[in-house]
Amino acid sequence: MAALSLATAATAQDVAITNARIIVGSGQVIDSGTIVVRGGRIVSVTAGAASTTGLRVIDAKGMSAMPGFVDSHKHVSNGENAAGQARLLLEAGYTTVLAGGGQADTNIALRDRIDKGEFIGPRIIPSGQINLRQTPAEARAAVQALAAKGIKHTGEIALTPEPGPTPAEIDVLKAIVDEARKAGVQVNVHAVSSPAMVAAIDAGVTRLVHIPNKDFTTYDQAERVAQTGSIVAGAIAFGAPYIDRLSPAPAQVQWPRDNSTRFRDGKPWPETISGANRDAKGRAVGTEGGYSLVNARRIWDADTTRQLISYSTDQNATDLVVLEHELKSYSVMFSMSDIHRIIGPNAARYVGMADQIGTLETGKLADIILLDGDPTLNIYEMLKTKLVLKEGRVVIDKR
Fold it and tell me: By the 8 A CB rule, do 151 and 128 touch?
């Protein structure tokens, strides 16, 4: 069945999903159960059958129900391809995306177009840019300007990775953190080396964009993340080459299946990235992927609550391809249960919506996806989204 029209998608909010394998997101799995949704929120999640009187019944027929995926840092566009990108995000299983870069007004406009029903798409959480090349007073004013627009997140604020942030950067960052705390704005910092990550944490930042990919994180540095209750948005596949894929690239992308390493657009690695990682003889060493994998696990193991790593992609390639690429890297270091936690409740925590999304539990928004497979087995079963509900409304139906 093709994706539903907007008029149809806007109707059914009171539904029951029956005969589903339910991946709650917190580690619990119900082999066969029922999810009841009223008014766009989950009112019950039970094993076996439940009363469905007065509800639209969706028979999952053994498919798996999961919380809609949450991307806690992705660059999205409000340009001419906005509707197409938004649909692809939904079709891949994403129901919430933190717009990690770009201008505040552009991100707000994209959110509003989706919310008003101009086209379907995931929940967009807008952010706004603040740079460090200004005075502390100017930075404080920039935070207040975001707050006045209703923006609750800064875009990624880039710190110098090597040899590390300058004192001037840290002074401005501390002003941003202080003002943001007063204004209720979350500060998201792009820190791609371990020194930059720790410097950001020491400045009061608790939301880090990207696992460090320039060096190996020490045990002590990982402990700093845990001690401060910080969380790092992954993108751990950055640096890992695209080689073989199961998910299809769109027809307009010429992506040869020739077993050669390629960048996320299917082309050879750009010099702007390879050049930053060369040995003494000028050879591109491609070490970011290895650093990211080890650092992700080290940070993960620094705290028994397993809340320190979030899911993010930071990419603009076709979303199903990106999802597969990211999950391949996660599967090297994490169990399937870990991955479900990272892309669900942990990512929800990162974006400040842990009480609303990320798990299939009573009281939460009914952001639910049905997958034609068993995601407890391997990451490829997470690439089979067939139906998407966003706040109880069916927005994608490809059964």
Answer: yes
Residue 252 has pLDDT above 90, yes or no: no
E-assigned strand segments in the chain:
15-23, 29-38, 41-47, 56-59, 64-67, 69-74, 94-99, 123-125, 153-158, 186-190, 207-209, 231-233, 309-310, 368-371, 385-390, 393-397
Q: Given pLDDT bands bounded at 50, 70 and 90, which one contains residue 285?
A: low
19: amino acid identity, one letter? N
Cα separation, 162 vs 184, whole angstroms: 31
Section 207-232 average pLDDT: 95
Mapping DSSP onto H, E and C, the string for 33-77 reads EEEEEECCEEEEEEECCCCCCCCEEEECCCCEEEECEEEEEECCC
Tell me the pLDDT tens digit for each residue of 176-189: 999 999 999 999 99
Give the alpha-carbon dihedral of 180, 183, 186, 189, to 10 degrees: -20
Q: Which residues does residue 309 pair with via DSSP β-bridges, in sequence order?
A: 232
Closest CA to 297 of 382, 355, 236: 236
Neighbours of 17 (CB within 10 A): 28
How far is the C-alpha of 356 from the C-alpha of 369, rounded, in Å?
16
Which tokens hold the place of 1? 């069945």
What angle in degrees, to the nearest 10, is found between the helix axes of 288-300 and 319-333? 60
The SS3 call for residue 393 is: strand
pLDDT, one tens digit per residue, over 143-155 is 999 999 999 999 9
Q: What CA–CA distance (Å, rounded) separates 273 from 331?
A: 24
Dist CA 174 CA 247 (whole Å):
43
How is 221-249 classified by DSSP, letter by letter? HHHHHHHTT-EEE--TTTTSPB---SSPP
Q: Which of 148, 164, 95, 145 is nearest to 125 (CA)?
A: 95
Most distant CA pair in the chain: distance in Å? 71
Residue 1 in this model has a pLDDT that exceeds 80 = no
- 20-79 pLDDT tens trace: 999 999 999 999 999 999 999 999 999 999 999 999 999 999 999 999 999 999 999 898
Neighbours of 234 (CB within 10 A): 30
Check residue 8 and give its pLDDT: 41
Q: What is the pLDDT of residue 3?
A: 42
